[in-house]
Amino acid sequence: MESENPEALAVIEGLNLPPQVILLPMPVEQRLDPAGFTRLLRNYWARRFEGEIARAWQAVCDATGQPRVAYADWRAAFAEIRDVLTRDNIIPAGLSDALVCRGFVALVTRLRYFSPGVRGCLFPAIHDWAALINGCTTAV
Q: Could you state, in order of their start, the residue ranges of all structural domains in the chain?
């Protein structure tokens, strides 16, 4: 979710941040026309929603002390997910499987609720979406 440099916040002396911080990018331009402003608001709330999903996912993982997905069972799918999300600059390179999974779940949830009917990415290695979603949700 971090579209801005999270390390930049660490240099501010005396800044007491919680463990999970949602950083939203500044819009390149603030359009005042109704259609542009509506798109800006929708994008903001979609990103905020995605950040909250990622935060909730991480909170459950931290509370249970275990990852939410058996990554070894989905090795090919996670390799593909990592490649696509990194190439599209959705996540930074070099993240752990748990962080890739968190970013993926947040993205899929965002696309489902904020862009129904739109598929933002194609993942050919995922043959059974129902099994993947079931594997992601059964550890709750």
A: 7-137
pLDDT digit string (tens) for the chain, length 140 residues:
344 455 555 555 566 666 666 666 666 677 778 888 888 888 788 778 878 887 887 787 778 776 656 666 677 787 888 888 888 877 888 888 777 887 888 887 777 777 766 656 677 777 777 777 666 655 44
Q: Number of H helices and number of E strands within the chain?
A: 5, 0
pTM of the model: 0.59
* Dihedral sign of CA atoms 58, 21, 91, 133 in order: positive
Contacts of 121 (CB under 8 A, 6+ apart): 84, 85, 88, 107
Crossing angle for the helix pair 97-114 and 75-87, to the nearest 10 degrees: 70
**Which amino acid is located at 85 in the chain?**
L
Please give the structure tokens belonging to residue 120.
């933002």
